[in-house]
Amino acid sequence: MIAATKPIRRNVAHGFSFAVGWTLLMLSGCAMYQYGPSSLYRSDIRTVHVPIVRNMTFRHDLGVRLTEALVKEIEDRTPYKVTGDPNADSTLVVTLVSENKTVLTETSSDDPRALDASVTVEANWMNRRGELLLQNSVVPNSGTMISFSQASRFVPEAGQSIDTATQAAIEDLAERIVSQMEFRW
């Protein structure tokens, strides 16, 4: 009777050690896998300096409005903290290149019925060492600045204005720029 229980104990012991070894092997294979929102952003960056957007247009308030939208979007969607310190871990530099409105449809008396307000910017995000963190996924190695353009439609007859359409375009641009701050897979 004693001789018969030794092989059973030995098989149970081997089975248990095999299960533990297999579990450790599987867990070690997934050790570098991350999940959740923290996996979308760089772990080496904690602070972002966002200087006032340089405005190359005649509408002087657009640079400040875009800066505010960028700061709000970074604070809301990313784990990064926006700081006024130029020695932050990274710096997001944005230049507002152009803004315009385009008439899409007119009435018979040549009054604009529907228009597009568009805003074009160039952005660059770099770390403290000067390495580029934003990467153009469409045209790799296209230079240091990446262009973004956004349009928003408005209808003056319905009470909409160029200011509300431009603000919508600015908010969409801020969302698109911050989306590019996500870590590439």
Automatic annotation (TrEMBL):
<protein>
    <recommendedName>
        <fullName>Lipopolysaccharide-assembly</fullName>
    </recommendedName>
</protein>
<dbReference type="GO" id="GO:0019867">
    <property type="term" value="C:outer membrane"/>
</dbReference>
<dbReference type="Pfam" id="PF04390">
    <property type="entry name" value="LptE"/>
</dbReference>
<keyword id="KW-0472">Membrane</keyword>
<keyword id="KW-1133">Transmembrane helix</keyword>
<feature type="transmembrane region" description="Helical">
    <location>
        <begin position="12"/>
        <end position="35"/>
    </location>
</feature>
<dbReference type="InterPro" id="IPR007485">
    <property type="entry name" value="LPS_assembly_LptE"/>
</dbReference>
<keyword id="KW-0812">Transmembrane</keyword>
<dbReference type="GO" id="GO:0043165">
    <property type="term" value="P:Gram-negative-bacterium-type cell outer membrane assembly"/>
</dbReference>
